[in-house]
Amino acid sequence: MKHSNLRFPCLIAAMYFGISVSGQEVRQDTTLKEQKIEEVIVIGYGSAKKRDLTGTIAKVSGEEINDKPAANPVNSLQGKVAGLSIVNSGQPGSQADVRIRGTVTIGQTQPVYIVDGVFANNIDFLNPADIESMEILKDPSSLAIFGNKGANGAIIVTTKRGKTGRTTVNLSSSLGVKSMDNRPDITNAEQFKILYNEDLANQGLPAYDKFNIFNADTNWIDQIAKKGGIISQHNVTISNGSDKNRVSFSFGYHEEEGSIKFEDYSRMTLKFNDDLKISDKLRAGFGLTGSYAKLPQLSGFSGALNATPVVSPINMIPGEFYGLYNSLPQEIGAAQIANPLAQVEGRRYTQLNRNLQFNPNMYVEFDFFNNFTFRSNFFVNYASGFGRGYQPVFNIYIPETNTKALADGQALTSVSQYENRLIEFQQNQLLTYKNKFGSHDLTLMAGFETISLDTNSMSGSAKGGLSNPLGQIPNNPRFWYLNSDFVDSTTKTLNTGQSKRRNVSYFGRALYSFQNKYLLNASLRRDGSSALAPGNRFDTFWAVGGAWEVTKESFMENVTFLNYLKVKGSYGDLGNQNSFYNYFGYPVYVEGGTGVFNGNLYPAFIKEFEEASDLKWEHLKSYEFGFESMMLNRRLSLDAAYYNKQTQDLLNRVDGNPDYFLNAGSIEAKGFEFTAGWKDRIAENFTYYFNGNLTTTKTEVLKTLNDGYIGYFGSSIYQQGSPIGSFYGYQVEGIYQSYADILGHAPSTIGDVAPGDFKYRDLNGDGKISADDRTIIGDPTPDFTYGFSLGGDYKGWFLNADFYGVYGNEVYRSWGNGSSFAPFNYREERMDRWTGPGTSNWEPRSYTGSGYNALPSDYMIEDGSFFRIRNVQAGYNFNKDLISGLKLQALKLYVNVQNLKTWDHVNSFTPEFGGSAVEYGYNNSGYPNPRIASVGINATF
Questions:
Q1: For residue 592, what pLDDT band results from cuts at 50, 70 and 90?
Q2: Which of 194, 362, 408, 620 satisfies CB 3.0 to 4.6 Å to 286 for a cystine?
Q3: Nearest partner of 471 among 523, 531, 393, judged by Cα
Q4: H or E element: which one contains 13?
Q5: DSSP 493-536
Q6: By three-state DSSP, how is residue 304 classified?
Q7: Domain ranges of the chain
Q8: 3-state secondary structure string across 862-879
Q9: Is the model's pTM score more than 0.70?
Q10: Is 301 left (phi over 0), alpha (psi -120 to 50) or beta?
């Protein structure tokens, strides 16, 4: 893979930001700039004018994501919102890693999603074509209303509803083709032979003598990759409305092929809602959202990267074993790596995984006493994931002995089965008061909410039996059940689980303004949760914010270039209840070990963890201050904010006998956000715009369990004074060029060394190389992220483009570093290895006799900065006069290219790597974020 230099695109971005970047919403007319500050923003349990809010809320219209080739709407937000980090995976049906304003927890990091008032863990069940808008809430004054769910930020999704007017039918369809942008650089067969024989020679072993048998040159990535994968989306929406009744119905179908063969994903969605105006003061409505997805049989490229290229995928020698998949060489990885093509083709379509989601809802709303409104909402969330799997039995060819063997050594077929079910009932009762007293505007809201969550799970497996008169389990989904007659009942295993959680909340909010220029927002919420022990279940969260619209002051009347300026600030105490555990305050027993009773051996049960009577949710102390502005006749907008988030009382699971939970530790994230935009009209028929954003983030672990405590997570570390998730290892100062070089350096206590091995730095100066010389070698959090877009429209013809980049983060390469465990294929960079004095001072000799050179070090660190042309779209919106004869209200034709080009520095399919709160940014080769070229049509009748 060739990596282009990032300086040029980054320089362009920096120059661009210096002029007029950002803005988080594209407008179709310059006159609408004034309406931007008057637009209604959806906030928690209500809505308000943007002008009346003291916090930072970004709004993305549905038009910006409706026609993008993505199943999950979140994926299309990448680069559009300051402070919003999205790491996409190109694998069909996968979830993005989403973080708002950095990582400040050691638990779950994802924001809370609210879809038409319903809390959700993700929004992969939503059809992007059904979305009206998405609001991203980032500051304490807007998040405190969510209490113990607000610490990680929130994304509010508002879906389309029926509109007043005659019946309209909207049809949209797109068809795209995938291709890989980047791929890792690995050695070919001749290069592998050179490196492998050198490895053996350096271990004092003879050269491999079977390359006459294994003489192929196989690119395993090409063997398993799906070339020209298809992605298609088809949607229909019917809307009708009168003053008394507004109805909307939609149906969507998404189908997608992955970057690996046989990774097929499809999803059907439907949505229905009906809004009734019963009288001038009474309104009601009900709706339904549904989704049914067929998940792909997920594979990966790991085997294709590690398998030696000297093996042909299939035995083509005429004879008894013709057509069998070849085994890898017995001495070169056969025990650790299966034939990648056999894994993909031999087990194709042996996993049937399905997701079903069903969300009915209803509301009643009425006005009374002129200024009061009461609204009652009821929601149900039913989600079920279920599936069956089959493990076939087939033979592979052993070239060394000219024999066949069972793949993976398995003589018996097997089946697996699972089902996970979630039923959630949510209801809230909201009372709102709005009034204006002279120069005073006041909105008060009080609410009560309960959430009841029940989950059930079942999983099991069983094998077929050779002694079974029916024989092996057939490769037919009809028989992939645990109760199949083909199953050997003595091999059956079954696991079940069940959990319950109940939450109750009381909350309120006040929005106050004086003379429409002095603003005050305040929120208070008290949450109770059954997950915590009795006596400690309730906690209180709050926030307050203020703003001043400076341009309404008389002393600003002569500042004509500045049309709007608001300075703002907020402070709050938010909560984080994101946890996998539901019973902190109760003893939970799991199977572990055995016990003897009456001379018989029985399974024993032990405590999974010690119950915690004084545990509480994490608290986030957060504040921000900044400004919003418009100038130059509202053509230029410029916003900026400084934010600081500090989580206290981190929720830790501590190793023990048994493990126990403890509130201890603190993490801070802070930085700046800048957004700007320019929109103008040249002549009557040509409009153009520029938008962009930039975010800086710095994280630091302020406190851990106790002084001196260090937590290790793979090659990441959790320690006081370091960024969260920092990579930890040795610093390489070069390669030992000779034995004299070795004798002149601090001796190693972590492994024997020879010329050609790494020379690790003696950081603590104690005269030896030991584990105490490890240090921080990288930070996975970028110094800054940025995104910008530009576009124009001329007489219906339009062109727009989105760009995205990150800068200043490190990536830890966890593949291709050499392993004493097994001989794997090599990165192409290994051809620059040390072969004698002066030949290399960075790439070590080819040697896997020990793990010394594979210890975590800055040799594994790569520059994670990248710049991407995220999306380019061109098309034509037909003039109504041209299509009126076709009974069309609107017609749009377009071509779109997503992930057109990426410039990066990593040896991988993609420079993007997510993960957990403390272990992320690992280059495990990843999965391609493919380039997608598509054509589409959108017609309204």
A1: confident
A2: 362
A3: 393
A4: helix 7-20
A5: EEEEEEEEEEEEEEEEEEEEEETTTEEEEEEEEEEEETTSPTTS
A6: helix
A7: 706-780+812-863
A8: EECCEEEEEEEEEEEECC
A9: yes
A10: alpha
